[in-house]
Amino acid sequence: MDNRDYGMNNYNENNGYQIYNEYEMNGNNGSESNYYNENADRNDGSNNQNLISYNSQEQSSSGLKEASFYSEKYVKPEKKKKGILGQLILVSVISSIIGGATVGAFLQFGVPAVRPSVNSFLREAGISTSDGIQNTLNNGPIDPGSYKKVVIENSDSAVVAIAEKVGPSVVGISIEYRAQSFIFGPQSGTSSGSGIIIREDGYIMTNNHVISEAMDGTTQIRNGAKIEVILPNEIDKPYTAKVVGRDARTDLAVLKIEATNLPAIEIGDSDRVKVGELAVAIGNPGGLEYMGSVTAGVISGLNRSMPLDGSNELKLIQTDAAINPGNSGGALVNAEGKLIGINTAKISGSGFEGLGFAIPVNRAKEITDNLIEFKYVKGRPSIGIIINQSFNEQIAQRYNVPAGVLVEEVMPLTGAFNAGLRRGDIITKVDGVSVKTHSELENQKNKHKVGEILKVEVYRDGSTLNLEIILGEDKG
Q1: Mean pLDDT on 49-54
Q2: Are 407 and 387 in contact (CB under 8 A)?
Q3: Angle ∠(161,167,168) on CA atoms, nearest 5
Q4: What are the structural domains of the chain?
Q5: Any idea what the Cα angle at residue 74 is, between residues 84 and 306, rounded to 5°?
Q6: CB 408 within 8 A of CB 15
Q7: How confident is residue 218, by pLDDT bands cut at 50, 70 and 90?
Q8: What single-letter DSSP state applies at residue 265?
Q9: Which has the closest alpha carbon to 241: 226, 252, 222?
Q10: Which of 178, 306, 360, 462 is deepest in the core (most CB within 10 A)?
């Protein structure tokens, strides 16, 4: 059996995960993913018994439980007094018809009905923000009077005090990029999202999917693309941003602008978050037109597993505070105005409401600290393979081979290469534990550290082999 030709989706272990945007998941975007080549080495169909000659439509769908990781693409609504929602919907429909790169957003509006009692939420409050001062565009510090110190203490509205404290630390992110359309050729596009000031010297945390359209490689911005950061009190003076690092596996990225004395957000402890406590989301839903929008709710759940492209999972905080397109990369804070999560996704669909998700700040800080210091996430073990994402138990049964993880490519000079792993091998066990999916393989691999040995059982051409792979470090 010749396993060299594949028509399945590939996952590059070293490149990380591609988060499909809202439109791609609905089938409206035909562009290739950065990390998957759906047409690579496609079989010509002449060999019906080839392992990969199958109908991809037979694979099951993940359904509504697959979250919307928004692409943050919007058409800015015209400033008219009436018919705003109608205009947004109309622009969205027109955008989808003409096939342009700039896509309108369908906004879902909600009014938070949260008026928390001060005695319930702020009994022990009274915490002051830092004295961070924002500067003008690339021209040094400005008058300290630009920001006022806010103390969260007993008042008529907890959310008002939180918004005053946190608002200056949540920024807008604007992206300009060029996209290639098969029909229309090169098209320019714009998108927007949110970000959080994490250091007063200009470091901004956001989601990777907010900026991914503008990226060519890990930190290289595409030719003709531009990423800008808009500060809340200087909306007419955008800062050009550089990409310090990004991590597709956790959907996080760090930007840097040339500014000092910025109002960095106060970091909380996501490990101490409790279900039912106050949660306030601040960001830019619908684009920069609604910059600094505040929604409130509660923590609805913890450690919620959210799949990314079917291969990796994030453990997220669930909240019913409204999170919409444009909120991605914004702040989820607690009753003290401390950052507890980075707004990332929501579950949308008929019958679903109030299902928003945020990356816990403890995990996010670990990732962003690594990106700032090393430009990648240090200490991640790597096998050194590209696997075939679409191979599953049904296909294995059809071709009378064991279920497992199908190796699409072995990277040169890696542990897998040195151990003798080959393209077409099916990994069936890791350290004696059966693995049938990539996530199961990842779970076993991640129990080890860089330099340790991973014992794998492999099916190859009717035989079973046992190999020992020395894990390298993933710097992708």
Answers
A1: 36
A2: yes
A3: 120
A4: 10-60+380-473 (2.30.42.10)
A5: 115
A6: no
A7: confident
A8: P
A9: 226
A10: 360
Output the six-digit token pair for 126: 């009274």
pLDDT class of 64 with cuts at 50, 70, 90: very low
Active site residues: 209, 251, 328
Question: Which pair of structure tokens corresponds to residue 387?
Answer: 């696997």
Q: In what order do the strands lie in the sheet with 185-199?
A: 234-240, 226-231, 170-181, 185-199, 203-206, 252-256, 242-247
Does residue 8 carry a pLDDT above 90?
A: no
Contact 322, 295 (CB under 8 A): yes
* Alpha carbon 310 to its chain's center: 14
Q: Mind giving me the DSSP string for 151-206?
A: EE-S-S-HHHHHHHHHGGGEEEEEEEEEEEETTTEEEEEEEEEEEEEEETTTEEEE
Q: Which residues pair with 185 in a beta bridge?
A: 181
pLDDT digits (tens, 9 = 90+) for 370-423: 999 999 999 999 999 999 988 999 999 999 999 999 999 999 999 999 999 999
Length of the chain equals: 476
- For residue 240 the two structure tokens come to 């050009």
Phi, psi of 363 (to 5 degrees): -70, -45
